[in-house]
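For practice. Supply one:
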Amino acid sequence: MFSEKDIRQIEGRNSSVEEVKAQVERFRKGFPWMKIEAPATPGHGITVLGEEEAQAAADYYEKAEIHGKCKFVPASGAASRMFKDLFSGLDTLRSGKDVAPDSPAAKFVADIRKFAFYDNELFGTPEDTAESRRKILGRTLTEEGLGYGSKPKGVLKFHRYRNGEVRTAIAEHLVEAQEYMRNSDGTANLVVTISPEHRQLFEEALAEVREEYETRYGVKYNVTFTYQDKSTDTIAVDVENRPFRTETDSLLFRPAGHGALIHNLNGIEEEVVSIKNIDNVAVERLLPVTAKYKKVLLGKAVELRDRIFGYLHELDAATGEGMAQALPPFIPSLTQNYDERYMSPEVQTLCNDIEEFLLNELCIRMPDAQDCKTRVRNLRKKLNRPVRVCGMVRNQGEPGGGPFIIEEKDGSTSLQILESVQINMSDKKARAALAGATHFNPVDIVCCLHDYRGNRFDLTEHVDEEAGFISSKSYQGRELKALELPGLWNGSMSDWNTMFVEVPLETFNPVKVVLDLLRPAHQD
């Protein structure tokens, strides 16, 4: 399948032939469908908090002992999709035709002065002519002006304030971070995933505001830029599932989606991490509600962490689990005594409490165990996992993964975020579950990454490799198939203890297309 040249190319990417062969085989056999039990809905998978409960969660966070906090911001990739409609309009105008009056390109030009990046000297006064539209689109998208069509979202000017201040998306994340992710020493840590070619742009955007914000908000920012590891790229194949080759007969590797970022997340030392996409920011007017519900999610995550830790410590004390594992094999009588502890009424009552907690709080229904010791071991394994609490907003037709209760391979159930491509639309039960879904995940997630003994989890051990998917792409006009790794908040977090909490729609303000910047949340 692979020549010597191919092998050198593969190994030069810090990958192996065996890994690439396994990827090709994955294209051939595909991924299994998720076995959906039901959609997660209010009272059945989604926790809806009253005002007092929300405040109690936020207060819990403020008082909790936390070994370091960090904001994790996926920000790699250019903003080309954000400007897709404008590129189409520019192509039309360059061909000598005009765009339709109700097209996104025409609306953009008509409202150009409402955007934070508008500059009268660069754009001039918009006129109702094809030439004016062509000039404004060209100076927005190409290097004859701002060059926004090839720059990352994080460095684009998103918001203009009434006092004249202009902020990029990354600047708004800095303002947010000091409000709800400040450490006890006055620092705010951010890890931002970027593409290597964009590093200078991010460094410049950060340098423009860091000193001013540190003085204004009384904070010290620690910002780390990380890259998606090239070794996580996956091979592309043609429509016959053969390795795709470029015009130079080289293998084509493509970034494997946001699932590759689990390796970046795994490198974070801090215990509690808040994840939010680079484009999900709003003007500072909305910061109070944004920060409040971030603290609510943080509080629920830490509260869940503490309850799980309590159960694990109780299991240790009741079973002597740690001591039994340390016993040498030549003392069978002592080992037998420890085994008998698993059958004690104290331990079985504790197991009943844990199973009730898992079912009622996390929608985890445990399968029957063959004996008492196995029951304890199974519960310990379920408890001793990373924790995530995901904000869920009412479905308003926005894109995003949906919350569901699924059946796992071991017979248990769990809460999972699924993309539409993971749902078997030919299955009647799966279609009914999708139709009954009420919420979606806006990538508003809080994670606890340390175990009950203070050690960091190895997050790569909690990935469901069967939860990826295959997508159709093209390369220079040629059709190909691409392999997406299990998504960061989908399969990469499949084996985590998960809670879904409803948050207000006001906390979700993504900028997927440039015209989204005209929405009230982005206008001061």
Notes: The mean pLDDT is 92. The domain at 4-72+162-304+386-522 is CATH 3.90.550.10 (Spore Coat Polysaccharide Biosynthesis Protein SpsA; Chain A).
